Amino acid sequence: MWSKNHSACIKCGMTKKPHMARGLCKHCYSWWWKNHPRNRAPLLKRRKELYWANREEELEKRAAYRAANRDKCRAWAEKYRKNNREKVRASGKAWRIANHEKELAIQRNRYARKKELKGCATSDQIEARIEYYGGLCYACGGPYEVIDHVIPVSRNGTGWPANLRPMCRSCNSSKNNKLLSEWEER
Q1: 102-185 belongs to which CATH class?
Q2: Hey, where are the domains in the chain?
Q3: pLDDT at 2
Q4: CA 47, CA 74: separation in Å to the nearest integer?
Q5: Per-state percent for the chain, helix, strand, coil, to nearest 5
Q6: Residue 169: how many CA atoms within 13 Å on its side-chain side?
Q7: pTM of the full predicted structure?
């Protein structure tokens, strides 16, 4: 059936020298071998072991590749997000639930950039403010739910940690954009 000369691959149809007696070219045989169910699991296990044995080097290689091929990586990421919308949404939602404080800090910083607010606070600084008040609303003493700007942003308040305090939602809603002294009088 197969001569020792060149012949057409049964998978891709290219005229190449076949690999062994399978009738596949070297490229197609390699693909078949890597993707065959009995071969896939050990290959993935070995690849994972190599990654963790040389993790720092691998991370450096990947960072260098991304820096050198920025457009290619962005195009791949965009294509992946487009083809896996539900998976990406679920992953993002899971991260936001697991990292609630970081998500709130990201939202506050985005708001601050939009309003051209002076100063911003990291999630660690905000956590320190919450711990300082014992995780309670600084106005009524109930459990905190949101972070309040003591001097409201609409009144040129800053985003520095000194202007941020934990507050429950009902107190924050009733305070609205009032200064603390105006709100307490009411």
Answers
A1: mainly alpha
A2: 7-35, 38-83, 102-185
A3: 43
A4: 25
A5: 60, 10, 30
A6: 1
A7: 0.48
